[in-house]
Amino acid sequence: MSERLDVGILGATGTVGQELIVALATHPWFRVAWVGASERSVGKRYADATPWRLRTPRPDAVAEMVVEECVPVTAPRLVFSGLDSTVAGEVEAAFATAGHTVVSNARNYRMDADVPLLIPEINPDHLQLLEEQTRVRQWPGKLVANPNCSTIVMTLALAPLCQFGLTHVMVSTLQAVSGAGYPGVSSLDIVGNILPHIDGEESKMESETQKVLGAVTHGRVVPHEVVVSAQTTRVPVINGHTALISVKFETPPPPGDIIRAFRDFSGRPQAEQFPTAPCHPVCYLDDPNRPQPKLDVDREGGMAVTVGRLRECPVLDYKFIVLGHNTVRGAAGAAVLNAELMKVDGLVSI
Ligand code: NAP
């Protein structure tokens, strides 16, 4: 693993694209060698095309790169996609058709039966869907996706609870403005306010969760039977999606078992020490004032979610709060972790 693999970023100038640039800047396995974006940016220096908005300074190595058109001519074999969903469907398919491996953040292919919807701590075995993908689509390349940002944050907290026979989930989210990209929602709409509608978000949380937690049988995902009811809102927080969750079990365990399950939860990224893996993907805090976006969003570089306030629920069995970084664990970091899993499994090569 000493040689770094050249990779490209589709949508490198956007919110997720910038997080990808940061996540890959010092990556031991991957090196950004190609950046692509829209007509607005093509032909410009990356530094000129990109209004840099992250607190981490823009890495020098990308400043002089020329932004390319998002066509698979000169791009490396492995590309990460932070493309707007209005174009991601067509562009990502063109790359997979041309033999590239696409690791996508966009929603377009997530629920397709032959597309792995990955959270490496939870369902690394879903990579076997790629055999079906090759058979059905005849793509020389491959495409995997990560779930929606709020789904990733919530599902990391639900996965440790599946062992207790999780049957029902009621969730309300308080989602950060960075989740809407840039410029996103108008400041006049969001300052001092809560927006009660995020287009498509509730159904994504309800269906993607079942796919991620599902089991692969005969080349297909049998969705997990958990029933999820989601309400999603946008709040004036910069980074960090918070989810207020109530859960019901076949047989409710004692609270101590639930807290232990959160704290002990880990998967292949931890066991095999992937570079981007948090040591503890789920951190449970006893302090009743946590989690808070201000204090907890950057836990383990933004790759761990923080859970707190476990208590009994008079309607379902238990309730708790989870917080995670939407553009890191919910997008760019999730995609990089997916690519690390694929590299370890021999599905990505030079
Ligand atoms: P964004 O800030 O609006 O960035 C969109 C990117 O797509 C930009 O690089 C833009 O390039 C590029 N683009 C737009 N139209 C294009 C075209 N016709 N051809 C080529 N490139 C084009 O959006 P974002 O928030 O980063 O989100 C990117 C994707 O990730 C979306 O699919 C989103 O749903 C998903 N996602 C976002 C989050 C989040 O928290 N933000 C979380 C999970 C998933 P220009 O700069 O040149 O216009």
Model description:
With 350 residues, the protein is α/β, with parallel strands linked by helices. It is built from twelve helices and 14 strands. A six-stranded parallel sheet has the order 3-2-1-4-5-6, with helices on both faces. Strands 10-7-11-14-13-12 form a six-stranded mixed sheet.
Features of the shown structure:
350 residues, alpha/beta, six-stranded parallel sheet, six-stranded mixed sheet, 12 helices, 23% strand, globular, binds NADP nicotinamide-adenine-dinucleotide phosphate
In short:
This protein has helices at 15-25, 46-49, 60-63, 85-97, 129-137, 149-158, 187-190, 201-213, 255-264, 268-271, 293-296, 328-344; strands at 5-10, 30-37, 68-69, 78-81, 101-104, 142-145, 166-175, 215-217, 220-222, 227-234, 241-249, 282-285, 305-312, 318-324. With 350 residues, it is α/β, with parallel strands linked by helices. NADP nicotinamide-adenine-dinucleotide phosphate binds at residues 11-17, 37-38, 40-41, 70, 82-85, 87-88, 105-107, 149, 178-179, 181-182, 326-327, 330-331.
